[in-house]
Amino acid sequence: MSNAPTAITASGAVQGAYSASEDPSQRPVAVFKGIPYAEASRFGAPRSARGWTGTRDATQFSGVAPQSPGVMDRLFSARDLRFTEDCLALNVYTPAADGQRRPVMVWIHGGGFTGGAGSIPWYDGSQFGRQHDIVVVTINYRLGVLGFTHLEGIADGNAGLLDQVEALRWVAANIEGFGGDPANVTIFGESAGAMSIGALLGMPTAAGLFRRAILQSGAADNVRTAARAEEVTENVLNHLGLRAATASRLYDLPLRQILEAQQTIGDDISGGGLPFGPVIDGTTFPQAPIEAVAAGSGKDVDVIVGVNAHEATLFNLLSADDLDRTKLIGRAARVFGTRAETVVDTYLTNRPGRNAKDVWIDLSSDLIFGAPARRLLVALTAAGGSAYDYLFRWETPAFGGRLRSCHALEIPFVFDNLAAPGVTQFTGDAPERQLIATAMHSAWAAFAHSGAPGPDWPKWSFERRATKVFDLEVTVEDNPRGAELDLW
């Protein structure tokens, strides 16, 4: 390994390996895997990782946060994840560990705050390094019960978010040794990763740790009140045969039992939604992140916010609901009350030939993703910030075309990793996919370099609502689907 890349961190030296491209004209990228950025006791706040002597091997990914792998993990070819509570590690992809100051992109993975890892092949950051001279960092953070338990005397509910902040502090202190610029950091993420970023925009201790942010299918609304978080914790304790008075046993219970309880409670607790995630605890978050953003907490951060056109098809692929207009109005009434009939008819009118189930998919997509994205854009720009909007509208032929423009579909396009394991099963193998990958990958890279994703992508304003639309033809549209999003 005499020609292997090396770098110096505050904890000690690391030695990685070069990742060569199948195209000999493209330069290799230096990859450093499994670098500890922090350590923590169960439920405890993260602290800087201990140092080591000699040179640490950084050619293998670390174990990942304990979790129960689901459909998405199998889709992302993450079948062989090794779980460990000692999971706070990151991976660096860089053109060279040469002390230059390149833009840095830090990826925060999704997975509903209960799954995922920075080592999933779709998240390989090599193409950003090869094509755009960017350093990419992917991270692990604590998940589920271990990352987001909220119970007085045990945990404040935000350990997973504190892990992300600690990773960003590691980047600030160490990334220059990997050829990155600590003053030019873009955080980007999808789903729970984007929801995390929405929270970080309103988190006081995260201020100043990033200059730009890209939120893919997630915004700033997915946080829990303390009461909601305590309800989830009580549910977990019940499944473990514990009470608040005996909750300290959580420190010592076997990991297997905790994961079984986490899996059992699912996502249907008092109204549904994600059971785990950031908590408005009055300390880590003095107020809801969207309120902090509206008050100006994100105005100095350049932001891209976007969604996919049919997010919820991924979650409803196996659903056999027999919906009609009447039943659909009943479901919509849970959100819109007496306005439900008007809302449903607006969606139906704008989808000639589509049935009630299709409309429910789009309504639920907007509830979870579209409307929160719009609210974040409004809050950012009203406070004087700079923001861009996008809509990923290309429809995959996979699964007989039933997925359409579903949740997570854009990820391999953003990373230009269409050849990664599992991608063709999700996207098909049509060569024209590369047109979209090139457009998205280049726009994300341009944004990381300068804060502008390209001259043909206008900033979002409430008056115009310009939106970049990614399809086989990449266009700009003003207020697409505005009649529907305005209903929210």
Provide the descriptors you would attach to this structure in a database record.
alpha/beta; three-stranded mixed β-sheet; eleven-stranded mixed β-sheet; Rossmann fold; 488 residues; 18% strand
Topology, number of strands: 20
Structural class, by secondary structure, is alpha/beta
- Give the CA-CA distance, first to last residue: 57 Å
This entry's quaternary arrangement is single chain
Under CATH, the topology of the domain at 1-190 and 224-276 is which?
Answer: Rossmann fold
Q: On the 0-100 scale, what is the average pLDDT?
A: 93
Portion of residues in beta strands equals: 15-25%
Amount of helix: 25-40%
CATH architecture label of the domain at 1-190 and 224-276: 3-Layer(aba) Sandwich
What overall form do the CA principal axes indicate? globular
Major β-sheet profile:
11 strands, mixed
Structure, described:
- By secondary structure, the protein is α/β, with parallel strands linked by helices.
- The protein has a domain at 1-190 and 224-276: Rossmann fold (3-Layer(aba) Sandwich), CATH 3.40.50.
- It has 16 helices and 20 strands.
- It has helices at 71-75, 126-132, 144-148, 159-174, 192-200, 226-239, 255-265, 289-294, 313-316, 325-336, 340-349, 356-382, 411-414, 423-427, 433-450, 482-485; strands at residues 6-9, 12-15, 17-19, 29-36, 38-39, 47-48, 55-57, 89-94, 102-108, 135-139, 150-151, 155-156, 180-190, 212-216, 224-225, 279-280, 302-308, 387-392, 466-470, 475-478.
- It has an 11-stranded mixed beta sheet with strand order 3-4-8-10-9-13-14-17-18-19-20, with helices on both faces. Strands 1-2-7 form a 3-stranded mixed beta sheet, with no helix packed on it. A two-stranded antiparallel ribbon has the order 5-6.
- The termini are far apart.
